[in-house]
Amino acid sequence: METLNQILESEIFNFRSYALKVSQLVSILVIIVVTKLILWVLKKAFFSKNKSSKIKTGSAYALLKIIKYVVWIIAIALVLESIGIKVTLLIAGSAALLVGIGLGLQQTFNDVISGIILLSERSIEVGDVLEIDNDVVIIESIGLRTSKAMNRDDISIIIPNSLITTSKVINWSHQSHQTRFKINVGVAYGSDVDFVIKNLEKSAFEHPEIHNKKLIEARLLNFGSSSLDFQLLFFSSNIFRIGKMKSDIRRLINKNFTNNNIVIAFPQMDLHFKSDIPK
């Protein structure tokens, strides 16, 4: 026992009045190992196959992320205390320095605070489909400063959290598993309105990925300057890849219009000349 005590009390590093002992190094390793073990157990508990289905994956991820940061902050504080650095004195002595750093890293702190808001409020979760700056992305992870997302071109995008919290963001996954989409088309004046509506609804009905085909609806939207403007409305659960689905439906519309002699309008202008203008 004495030998063990002597080993633990032996110095590894000595600088002026400060000495790093073996016991302190062992304490640091124990703190790190215990911290990683706690986080591993928590992760298994949150994402266990036998866990209650009432907790969503996104909510579990957000809660685990917050706990992870709290646990690591406590672990770092314990490490500093174990090597003889008083955390309270360190914070008090570096207050002026922290103010200067805060001013220089204002945007970074803004992103961090935004990350805490996202993780705590859970208004946006992992797996949600968002529309940000006219770009549709699916959220893959939410970090403390940035979030990682994938757009429709399978390009990974790093988004500052402040952009999500301060911009107008459409969450396509927030309300329901299905969303209504629209396709606009203009046909030539003189076309049979009822026949056009029938062909538009038929085109949507032919697509296999339409959700609840009873809700397909076509409308006469407006009398345009060069066309009768129609709108086709339909529901789909394929939110992220809706661009391809819309393209397929437009192809069906073009095919049905061609087969039924319905002319898709193009911009045109009529000029009228008066021949009886006096000299």
UniProtKB/TrEMBL annotation:
- List where in the cell it is found: Cell membrane
What are the residue boundaries of the Mechanosensitive ion channel MscS domain, all occurrences included?
108-174
Q: So where does this one cross the membrane?
A: 22-42, 62-80, 86-105
Keywords linked to the UniProt accession: Cell membrane, Membrane, Transmembrane, Transmembrane helix
Q: Name one GO cellular component term.
A: plasma membrane
The superkingdom listed in its UniProt entry is Bacteria
Concerning Pfam families, the annotation shows: MS_channel_1st, MS_channel_2nd, MS_channel_3rd
Spell out the molecular function terms from Gene Ontology.
Answer: mechanosensitive monoatomic ion channel activity
Q: How does it sit in the bilayer?
A: Multi-pass membrane protein
Q: Does the keyword Cell membrane apply?
A: yes
Domain named Mechanosensitive ion channel MscS C-terminal is located at: 182-264
- Predominant subcellular localization, coarse grouping: membrane
Q: Which residues form the Mechanosensitive ion channel transmembrane helices 2/3 domain?
A: 65-106
Q: Which family is it part of? A: Belongs to the MscS (TC 1.A.23) family.
This one is known as Mechanosensitive ion channel
Origin organism lineage: Bacteria, Pseudomonadati, Bacteroidota, Flavobacteriia, Flavobacteriales
